[in-house]
Design brief:
Layout: H1 5-16, H2 28-41, H3 50-82, E1 88-92, E2 95-96, E3 100-106, E4 112-119, E5 124-129, E6 136-142, E7 150-157, E8 163-164, E9 167-178, E10 186-189, E11 194-196, E12 200-204, E13 216-218
Length: 219
């Protein structure tokens, strides 16, 4: 006797007089009904192999455990995201929506570091020169620009006049969370920006202040 899930579903459909739509997922109760239907319909002279029966139960148990784990992980992500409300965060990226705190990270000493703010059509609207050149993470106050869509870039030159990589990130405060993205909750920022929670690199209490530098700026 064929004991796969398809034949079990067919057996149940025959017994109930109507088949369950294929688009619906099979739950725990459905699975048990299918197994009971299979046991009651088996040939007494050729009963089902009990090993196969146990295997089916084990497979279903494993699947159910994975589904429960996925549900609990989703609940944990939701709870963690909600706990970010009102927190100051730093997020990987270089997009800003007006005045903001930008960050750059250097892995080695640089000879010079400059930052440029670029608007949505590619115009340079602000240049900040003479930024710190030591290794590590540095924050820069970007102000004097109206609300809008911008990106910022950092040009770091080493002692051999070669370009250096500078990791960029943005500081903001979380005012809301959107769960419409199934892969990662979207953080709604005070600045109007929207960031994926998976891009978070730092969280700290708003009461903690970080000193910002006063570099040479040009409009």
């Amino acid at each position: 006797m064929n004991t796969d899930v398809t034949s079990l579903q067919n057996a149940t459909a025959t017994g109930n007089g109507a088949a369950k739509p294929a688009s619906q997922s099979m739950g725990k109760d459905d699975f048990m009904k299918l197994l009971l239907t299979q046991l009651s319909a088996q040939d007494p002279l050729n009963p089902q192999d009990p090993t196969q029966f146990v295997t089916q139960l084990t497979q279903f148990s494993n699947l159910e455990n994975l589904q429960n784990l996925g549900t609990k992980m989703g609940q944990l992500v939701t709870a963690n995201s909600i706990s970010l409300l009102g927190k100051d965060v730093r997020v990987n990226g270089n997009q800003i929506n007006g005045p903001a705190t930008g960050y750059y990270a250097l892995t080695d000493n640089a000879k010079s570091v400059n930052l440029q703010v670029i608007d949505s059509v590619g115009n340079i609207v602000k240049t900040i020169k003479d930024l710190p050149t030591t290794p590590g993470l540095h924050d820069v106050k970007i102000d004097g620009i109206p609300a809008g869509n911008y990106t910022f870039s950092v040009t770091a030159i080493d002692v051999n006049n070669q370009l250096m990589n500078a990791g960029l990130s943005v500081g903001d405060r979380v005012k809301g969370v959107n769960f419409s993205d199934s892969t990662s909750p979207i953080l709604l920022m005070d600045s109007g920006a929207q960031m994926k929670s998976s891009d978070l690199v730092e969280i700290h209490d708003p009461a903690t202040t970080v000193a910002t530098m006063a570099p040479t700026t040009t409009p």
